[in-house]
Amino acid sequence: MSQENLLVREARLDDSRAIAGIIQAVGWSEQISSESLVQMQAQVADRIEHCLREDNHTILVAERITVGEGVHSCSSEPPQGIVVGYVAVHWFFHLQRGSDGYVSELFLHPDETGHGIGSRLLDAVSAYAHRRGCTQLILVNRRIRESYRRHFYAKHGWEEQPESAFFALVLPEQNEKHQHACSPVS
Which InterPro entries match (predicted)? Predict the structure, then answer.
């Protein structure tokens, strides 16, 4: 008999392979789905490393840890788990009202939905936001996504803003150096 636990923790560089696998399994776009896992892992590792250097990003992972028969839970080494989901949030300051958090990504491996993992990640991000003194958390949820159709965020107290419109300006591709974060204009 095994007992499963879910640990929500800050992402580490060695989570890049699991996160890349989740991104590919979700099938966010054809471009992402066509990249090899090795390419995706390298890109994710580079972005995690970038986020870890700065205080204005937080990446959390949900790690499922299974403790089975014959495994001592009081061992000096923590049991190895499987990363089954992640959330990325960016903290930014407004001149008018203080700080907000923008949840840019919350993805679970498709086999892991419906088990409360997304809820645990949202709760953890909310706790981080409270500690940082944020006034609100915001996100964009595409209407074609299953999470929108199931009212996932609404069930957790998030409110769709009917008076707002989401706009995007697609910029021409830049070289690799500038794909990680917008650099200050000099």
Answer: Acyl_CoA_acyltransferase, Bact_Acetyltransf, GNAT_dom
Alpha-carbon radius of gyration of the chain:
18
The whole domain housing 105 covers 3-178
What pTM, to 2 d.p., does this model score? 0.82
In the chain, the number of structural domains is: 1
pLDDT band at 181 (very low <50, low <70, confident <90, very high): low
Helices (H), ranges, the chain:
16-26, 30-34, 37-53, 117-132, 146-149, 152-155
Chain CA centroid to CA 106, Å = 4
Angle at 129 between CA 115 and CA 152, to 5 degrees: 30
Q: Does residue 137 belong to any structural domain of this protein? A: yes
Q: Indicate whether 49 belongs to any domain.
A: yes
